[in-house]
Amino acid sequence: MHTVRPGELFAEASLFASRYHCDAVATVASEVHWYAKNALRTQLQACPATMWRFTAELAQRVQGLRSRLEVQQVRSARERVLQYLGLGCDAKGQWQHRGTLKHLAQEIGLTHEALYRTLAVLEREGCISRSEKGIRLITADPKQRRSAPGH
């Protein structure tokens, strides 16, 4: 239901439940910090800046979840990948890996084989370029790429 990445929080709903109803499973070697519920609640109530950071984290997570659900509704693997990259790239069109491509495939609801094929096609079309740093979104339309000045 949720993949926790390094530095992220999880089980925050337990702050508002009398009994937490979920389990967590680490699929790789992990270091987990836990906080006593009452101590954390006291800290959040006592420090508005900490409460705002916590609230911002939760809001960003909801926004990310909505975006992933929207992307997963796109039927075409090509369009799904382009939409995901477009939502996640910086102002220069660069998307940074936050895990493996298998994690990316899982996040957007594709098999890793379908993702690899789609990335290869997009790269051949000139829509993206790939490097160790990530993926650069060049254009979603291969016709624009070929007709752009200097190409």
> With helices defined by DSSP (H or I, 4 residues minimum), what is the helix count?
6
Mean pLDDT: 87
CATH architecture of the largest domain: Orthogonal Bundle
Considering DSSP H and I runs of 4 or more, what fraction of the residues is helical?
A: 40-55%
Instruction: Count the domains.
Output: 2
Which sequence of SSEs, written as H and E, runs from N to C? HHHEHHEEH
What is Rg? 19 Å
- The SS-based structural class is mainly alpha
Task: Kindly report the name of the CATH homologous superfamily of the largest domain.
Answer: Winged helix-like DNA-binding domain superfamily/Winged helix DNA-binding domain
At CATH level 3, the topology of the largest domain is Arc Repressor Mutant, subunit A
Query: What's the count of strands?
Result: 3
Report the sheet with the most strands, covering strand number, pairing sense and barrel closure: 3 strands, antiparallel
> Spans with pLDDT under 50 lasting ≥5 residues?
145-151
Q: Strand order of the main beta sheet, please?
A: 1-3-2
CATH class of the largest domain: Mainly Alpha
Question: What form results from the Cα inertia axes?
Answer: elongated
Counting copies of identical and different chains, the oligomeric state is single chain
**Which percent range describes the beta-strand content?**
5-15%
Notes on the structure:
A three-stranded antiparallel sheet has the order 1-3-2. Helix 1 crosses helix 2, helix 2 packs antiparallel against helix 3 and helix 4 packs across helix 5. Strand 2 and strand 3 form a beta hairpin. It folds into two domains: 73 residues, no CATH class; 76 residues, Arc Repressor Mutant, subunit A. The protein is 49% helix and 7% strand. The protein has 151 residues and is mainly alpha-helical.
